[in-house]
Amino acid sequence: SQTIHQWPATLVQPVGSPLSLECTVEGTSNPNLYWYRQAAGRGLQLLFYSVGIGQISSEVPQNLSASRPQDRQFILSSKKLLLSDSGFYLCAWAGPGGEPQHFGDGTRLSIL
Amino acid sequence: SQQGEEDPQALSIQEGENATMNCSYKTSINNLQWYRQNSGRGLVHLILIRSNEREKHSGRLRVTLDTSKKSSSLLITASRAADTASYFCAVRRGYGNNRLAFGKGNQVVVIP
Predict the structure, then answer these.
(1) What is the spatial distance between Cα A87 and Cα A106, in angstroms, rounded to a whole number?
(2) A103·B40 Cβ contact <8 A
(3) Do B30 and B93 touch, CB atoms closer than 8 A?
(4) Are strands A32-38 and A87-94 parallel, antiparallel or unpaired?
(5) What pLDDT, in 10s, does the model give residues B55-78?
(6) Chain B interface test: which of A38, A48, A51, A68 (most B C-beta within 10 Å)
């Protein structure tokens, strides 16, 4: 069966520090991969999605970047975190049809 | 950009009662999906209804879709305390579009 792993679960970082969040999927190949951010009490904002290795689409201009170095690995990065980068970050995968999406348990990122 | 919008935002009901949530969207869609999120966790896919379908059932869940009104409803029958969660609708805009647009979510509290 397919599983998705996302880590760390919680992260506290100072303003201006770098960020690397990792997401890996097991049990499937060539998944569509997604990074979302969820602000408190809000819906999900799609940040990046990828349909294949090295193929990244950005939905909104921001301080973050994403990379897909391997088929089932999706990384969210920042060189310098801002206070506004705080939030709950969710990774998801889907099959070639794009649905349904299966989510990891998220990373709670707090910027101090 | 198109986005699902749920209404009402928060719902508190007694165990055994039915819970109904609504979602509206603005442009044509390929399908509409409902997801559930327990506090601090990732989203879990519940049900998908395609644009040519009007009603779908899955266990205690019933989803309707009215494309003329651009709206959907999710009914949870005979609610249980374990149904306490946030519920999100998400729309897929068109064939070949691998992205979902999520609403802000409904928080449902089922009182034992």
Answers:
(1) 10
(2) no
(3) yes
(4) antiparallel
(5) 999 999 999 999 999 999 999 999
(6) A38
